[in-house]
Each structure stands twice: as structure tokens, then as C-alpha cells.
Amino acid sequence: MFTLVDAIHRNERLNPAAEAIADDTGRLTHGELADRAFRIAGVLRSHGVAPHDTVGVLADNGIFGVETMLGAVAAGAAYVPYNWRWAPAELVHGINETDASVILVADHFADALAAAVADAEIRRSITVITQSELEALLEAKAEPTAYVGFEPSGLL
Description:
Blueprint: H1 4-14, E1 19-23, E2 26-29, H2 30-46, E3 54-58, H3 63-74, E4 78-82, H4 88-98, E5 102-105, H5 110-118, E6 127-130, H6 131-140
Parallel strand pairs: 3-4, 3-5, 5-6
Antiparallel strand pairs: 1-2
Helix pairs in contact: 1-2, 2-3, 4-5
């Protein structure tokens, strides 16, 4: 079976300098995207995320949203996107229903997440990592924790 992690590895190997994604904040090549995805996977694992755990992401359709999705998958976790248009009660309901252990949030949605969970009953303890905090954690690790989650299936 060819997995999403296999696709990350394949694109990194075959097209490392080709543009993979762009938004109004910048551009990433396949090599850069793979590097960031595996670094994010390492950060998630260092925060206790294990295979089959749930990682929630509150982001829009940009680089941060894509790289956190790939990072969660590379860590072996289930990626759950939260809709940034949800009302606070809907966001709390989504968090409780998906049982996320870690939530990655774009900086421009951090205040909305904090306000939503401030007076709400969240069923489990969660770790919230903002985009800025994640960036600092990624910069602190000089080497990517490549292949943190699942190894390539060999079908490449």
C-alpha cells in the first residue's frame, strides 16, 4: 500500500528542488516540505503524540495547514482539521469529539481557540502549540527527525 508518508519520501527524492506549495507567506520545495513535515512529526512525538493519537489543527488553506497535516501523518497520528469558521461552541465540540491530545493552531486563530476553550469543559488535557511556538521548536532542532512515524513501504 502506498501511503501519504511514502508520497512525502518519493517527492523529496524525485523532485527535491521543485516547488511543492505556495501561499502569500512564501513557498516550499518538496525537499523543504518533507524536512518540515518530519521535523513537525518529531515535535509532536516529543509532546507525547503516539501512533493512532489525534492531532487537531486550526489553520486556513496555507503552508502551515499543509505542513502540519503532513507532520501529523508522519508521526503516525490521525490529522483532524478544525474549521476556522466554527463558533466557539462548535470548536469545543469538535475538540471533544475528536479527542485530540495536541492542537496546532495558526497564530491568527490562537486568540479564538483560547477564547473558545477558556470557559468550556474540555474532556481531556490538551497541549496547544501555536504556529510561532512550533517555529521556535523547529529552529531549536538542527536536524530533522526524519522518518519518525512510519517507514516508507518500499513500494516507491
